[in-house]
Amino acid sequence: MRARQLEVFCALMRAGTVTGAAATLNISQPALSQILLHAEDQLGFKLFNRVKRRLVPTEEALELYPEAERIFGELAALRRRTADMRRGRTGLLRIAASAPPAMALIPGALADFRASHPDVVVRSQIAPMRHIVDMLRDGDIALGIVMNDKPHHGIDVEKIGESHLACLVPAEHPLASRASIGFADLAAYPLIAYRPEVLPGLLLSAIADAENLEYAPAIEIDVSISALPFVQSGLGIAIVDSLLPWGLFSGVRIVPFVPKTALPVAILTRTSHPISGAAKLMREKVCLAWAGYSAGAG
């Protein structure tokens, strides 16, 4: 299967229709159908059956798809890299972080890094952990900084420290002056907190169970920063990570949550690929930024 055929196959598997796949690839529907026919002729078997104006993958297509996506991701990464080289950007470091470390650690680490490597272009992204893991596997980034030390196949996980859960409270709220806040204090107010499927939500659900309480946020979040406008609008009190620099935002106060609940901070790299000298230096700078943050928080 040629590269263009692979691209069409993956687009069709994702979209489920010729119309959707053609729009994604910015080509005409007849052109896409022709590429698909050529691919099926070369393979010697059908990849899709038409059922009620939709394309239904055959068993062969379903078996091929995971490997096809992996190869397509590697080809896409290769195209991006060659484009960078064509533009003379061989000194390029790609990193990604979840929002709290991206806002609390990366600015200081990047300032130190660029002081000694001003000619290296740094491409920094904010993304959830699952996307960061995928980007590492596809070779799109060299380092990931996340709030989770869960193991992943093919990924090295280096825990550098722990943040803790805290409550984000409207500045004029009666609980804003408290030294700490627990579930019992929150019973009378709408709760804004993590959905149970993510690590902080799992931890909070376990705490609620231990206190014979139900963990049932009125507003569920995936990432802590999304709680900010809800709290500022008076929609409730949020349980969030304490790493994000909440002091930068108006109208809110951060209060420790009890019992004290740790959230790991970790650096992710690919097991199978040694990282570059620039990536190693950036990792060191992130660790130093964490050390500075920990000293200030302590």
TrEMBL record:
Residues annotated as domain HTH lysR-type: 1-58
Pfam family, one: LysR_substrate
Keywords carried by this UniProt record: DNA-binding, Transcription, Transcription regulation
InterPro entries: LysR_HTH_N, LysR_subst-bd, WH-like_DNA-bd_sf, WH_DNA-bd_sf
Protein family per UniProt: Belongs to the LysR transcriptional regulatory family.
Name of the protein: LysR family transcriptional regulator
